[in-house]
Amino acid sequence: MGAVVLDTTVLIDVLRGRPAAERVRDLLAARDTLLTTAINVEEIFRGLRDAEAAAANALFAGLRVLPIRREDGERAGRWRGEFARRGITLHQADCLIAAAAVGLRARLATGNPKDFPMPELSVEEWPVGR
């Protein structure tokens, strides 16, 4: 039992009825807490197909949506700075999502693990479309 933050790639696959939906059901059966962030909500609604609106609203009703706190912003900023000094560009949204997960000691489920190289973060790769 634990907490899992669902990244946008996973949420898209759930909405489209791909195998990620079954994995989410498995997490619920294992009594894991399913989370996402307001950033992921924005990313879903930005690219939402009209036919998916009801399903998206139902999906988010069943998840706890995490706020981005000051300490998350600080952690994300430190990561971006540290990686930039090594010549690696990280996206602000990804760093904020990761920081929210780390702040709760939650795992992050994503189809893009390369976007989340932070050593403090526990990442579960959920291949896109599978």
The tally of strands reads 5
CATH topology annotation: Rossmann fold
Estimate the helix proportion, in percent.
40-55%
List the domain count as a whole number.
1
Mean pLDDT: 95
Structural class: alpha/beta
First-to-last CA distance:
23 Å
CATH superfamily: 5'-nuclease
Instruction: Please give the CATH architecture.
Output: 3-Layer(aba) Sandwich
The general outline is: globular
As residue ranges, the low-confidence spans are none
Radius of gyration based on Cα positions: 14 Å
Q: Would you mind describing this structure in some detail?
A:
This protein is α/β, with parallel strands linked by helices. The chain has one domain: 3-Layer(aba) Sandwich (Rossmann fold). Helix content is 49%, strand content 15%. A 5-stranded parallel beta sheet has the order 3-2-1-4-5. α1 crosses α2 and α5 packs across α6. The longest helix has 16 residues. It is globular and about 40 Å long.
